[in-house]
From TrEMBL:
<dbReference type="InterPro" id="IPR051686">
    <property type="entry name" value="Lipoprotein_DolP"/>
</dbReference>
<dbReference type="InterPro" id="IPR007055">
    <property type="entry name" value="BON_dom"/>
</dbReference>
<dbReference type="Pfam" id="PF04972">
    <property type="entry name" value="BON"/>
</dbReference>
<protein>
    <submittedName>
        <fullName>BON domain-containing protein</fullName>
    </submittedName>
</protein>
<feature type="domain" description="BON">
    <location>
        <begin position="56"/>
        <end position="124"/>
    </location>
</feature>
<feature type="region of interest" description="Disordered">
    <location>
        <begin position="1"/>
        <end position="31"/>
    </location>
</feature>
<feature type="compositionally biased region" description="Basic and acidic residues">
    <location>
        <begin position="1"/>
        <end position="22"/>
    </location>
</feature>
Length: 128
């Protein structure tokens, strides 16, 4: 009766005989830069990205403007909003430091924003 080691030895001998007969038959090209797909593109992260793609600059801007209009601290102020590569830039003059802080917080709390440049100034603050 043959054991597992004997069967494996027989398989190796059979493979060696095939390789001697036709060396090209045993050639299996492998890329020197083969990367396992799951190592770099985790299925759970890819599924989440497909389900929730990053918002565009236009959608971020419209969301920030809507939030500023609904906020009781900023609804009476004229605030210029610009978005470039998911960075929100707030400009203009607001009535108080609380309105400036509230506008910055509204921008930061918007989905997809990576940075906020709060360039708002109050009447008591000199312009830069």
């Amino acid at each position: 009766m043959l054991g597992p080691d004997d069967r494996r030895r027989a398989e190796i001998e059979e493979t060696e005989m095939t390789e001697k007969a036709d060396p090209a038959a045993s050639f299996h090209p492998v890329s020197p830069w083969s990367y396992p797909v799951e190592r770099y593109y985790y299925p759970w992260a890819l599924a989440e990205y497909i389900a929730n793609p990053e918002p565009s600059d236009h959608s971020i801007k419209s969301t920030v403007v809507q939030r500023l209009k609904e906020n009781p601290h900023t609804k009476d102020d004229t605030i210029k909003v610009d978005v470039k590569q998911r960075v929100v830039i707030l400009g203009g003059e607001v009535s108080s430091w609380l309105a400036k802080r509230a506008a910055g917080d509204d921008a930061w709390d918007t989905a997809g924003v990576v940075d906020v440049s709060n360039q708002l100034h109050t009447p008591e603050q000199p312009r830069p």
